[in-house]
Amino acid sequence: MKRDPSRAQAIEPASTRDGHRRASIGARRSPQAEEAILDAARALLAERGYSGFSIDEVARRAGAGKPTIYRWWPTKADLFIDVYSAEKSAALVPPETGALWSDLLAYTRALWAFWRDTPSGRTFRALIAEAQASTPALVALRDKFLPERLKDVRHMFDEAAARGEIRPEAVPHLLPLYIGFNWYRLLTDQIADDPEDITIMARTLAGTPQ
């Protein structure tokens, strides 16, 4: 039987700094190559921010072929989102205080600290800005980033509904209100730790008296 070259394993070697070559096999991700690419992307963000973040430079630092990166991450926004998501998952653990308002207080303070203190957190607002002028970035932000990164917050609201603190049908409406508060503070550079304002927001969304 004649072998279909389109279904063959495609190997794309690229030179690494130590002279060896790292291979990526077809659409299946090599864990070693993926880790090298994400590490390079994280370091580049720390050094140059989002404006200096490019697939070309990530490929050079990771010793990976650009076709490999573009196959796994079609745009730099997609690659940034994966770096951001990994760092955020490691830094934030959803609280379980037993009340929605205090869950939101603890989570939001941790979120703002993440935005202040990590390379991807400090550059996140650049992705939001890019999404206003770039359709691929907007699609990545809306369809990839938001559904995944809102799981923790949605879980807090769902748990509150299960406890009877809020109505279940209110959850889809409370989520954008929570996002709006946080992104407003981020985009206007007002994310210094502010427990008083965060408490007011949290109690308002939870319907808890001040």
TrEMBL record:
DNA-binding region: 54-73
PROSITE patterns linked to this entry: HTH_TETR_2 (PS50977)
UniProt keyword annotation of Transferase present: no
Record keywords: DNA-binding, Transcription, Transcription regulation
UniProt cross-references to Pfam families, sorted A to Z: TetR_C_11, TetR_N
Domain HTH tetR-type: 31-91
PANTHER family: HTH-TYPE TRANSCRIPTIONAL REGULATOR RUTR (PTHR30055), TETR-FAMILY TRANSCRIPTIONAL REGULATOR (PTHR30055:SF148)
Name this polypeptide is given: AcrR family transcriptional regulator
Annotated InterPro entries: Homeodomain-like_sf (IPR009057), HTH-type_TetR-like_transc_reg (IPR050109), HTH_TetR (IPR001647), Tet_transcr_reg_TetR-rel_C_sf (IPR036271), TetR_C (IPR011075)
Keyword Zinc in record: no
Species the sequence originates in: Xanthobacter agilis
Superkingdom of origin organism: Bacteria
Region (Disordered): 1-30
